[in-house]
């Protein structure tokens, strides 16, 4: 039986669901109302955290920047509880875009609230169309789980990615290590070495479902979930 992968609910589910399916998993779209975090963690073999709205800066003790207008308090609360339950159970986790950000916040980190105004606009971090358009390259740390999974797709330590975000990891939560950076220093991937499998990426690998470019990330989650 394929490992059951819980997917945090968001507005654009199809690519996440299909990516899990093509990697050999049984995708399970969670419901805030029907699937309490601790029960969901007990009922699945792995967790996929998805993209979406900004995380409320109040969650990490900061006043809201003027650009932060699209927040979902109920989703923040649900996913923070989901992350904490998953970490307590050492459940394999793959976190994407907002998923990476909410994971960092849930474990004590903070965010850059607006990359263009707080870091700069030299690197395009918001290229909405087409959804798999290459926005820039990222560095990949040799020997990291990310490097291991992506293999020969990483050329000279670099990997081309798409990008649709204006927030990013700020203060890194304890225990995480950075495994990828954009040319402007924005954190693009993190890992939690003490975990069985915990990888977060800032780009959207699910949008490459047809080409399979980033299928190894989902296969990595599935492999860890099949333990």
Structure notes:
The protein has seven helices and eleven strands. The protein is of the alpha/beta class. The chain has one domain: Class I glutamine amidotransferase (GATase) domain (Rossmann fold). The strands form three sheets. The chain has a seven-stranded mixed beta sheet with strand order 2-1-3-4-11-10-9, sandwiched between helices. A two-stranded antiparallel ribbon has the order 5-8. Strands 6-7 form a two-stranded antiparallel sheet. Helix 3 crosses helix 4. The two termini are 13 Å apart. The mean pLDDT is 97.
Task: Name the structural class.
Answer: alpha/beta
What fraction strand? Answer: 15-25%
Percent helix range: 25-40%
Q: Numbering strands along the chain, what is their spatial order in the largest sheet? A: 2-1-3-4-11-10-9
Strand-helix topology:
Layout lengths: L3 E4 L6 H9 L3 E4 L7 H6 L3 E4 L23 H16 L4 E4 L1 H9 L4 E2 L2 H4 L17 E4 L5 H6 L7 E4 L6 E2 L7 E5 L5 E5 L6 E4 L13 H11 L2
Parallel strand pairs: 1-2, 1-3, 3-4, 4-11
Antiparallel strand pairs: 5-8, 6-7, 9-10, 10-11
Helix pairs in contact: 3-4
């Amino acid at each position: 039986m394929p490992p059951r992968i819980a997917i945090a609910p968001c507005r654009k589910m199809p690519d996440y669901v299909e990516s899990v399916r093509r990697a050999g998993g049984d995708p399970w779209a969670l419901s805030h109302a029907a699937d309490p975090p601790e029960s969901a963690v007990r009922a699945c073999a792995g967790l996929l955290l998805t993209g979406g709205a900004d995380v409320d800066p109040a969650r990490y003790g900061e006043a809201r920047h003027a650009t932060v207008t699209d927040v979902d308090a109920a989703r923040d609360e649900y996913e923070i509880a989901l992350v904490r339950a998953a970490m307590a159970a050492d459940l394999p986790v793959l976190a994407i875009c907002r998923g990476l950000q909410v994971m960092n916040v849930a474990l004590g980190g903070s965010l850059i609230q607006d990359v263009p105004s707080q870091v700069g606009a030299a690197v395009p971090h918001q290229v909405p169309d087409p959804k798999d358009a290459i926005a820039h390259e990222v560095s990949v740390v040799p020997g990291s789980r990310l490097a291991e999974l992506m293999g020969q797709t990483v050329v000279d330590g670099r990997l081309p990615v798409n990008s649709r975000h204006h927030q990013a990891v700020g203060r890194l939560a304890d225990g995480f290590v950075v495994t990828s950076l954009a040319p402007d220093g924005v954190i693009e991937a993190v890992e939690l070495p003490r975990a069985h499998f915990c990888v977060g990426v800032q780009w959207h690998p699910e949008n490459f479902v047809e080409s399979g470019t980033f299928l190894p990330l989902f296969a990595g989650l599935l492999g860890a979930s099949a333990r």
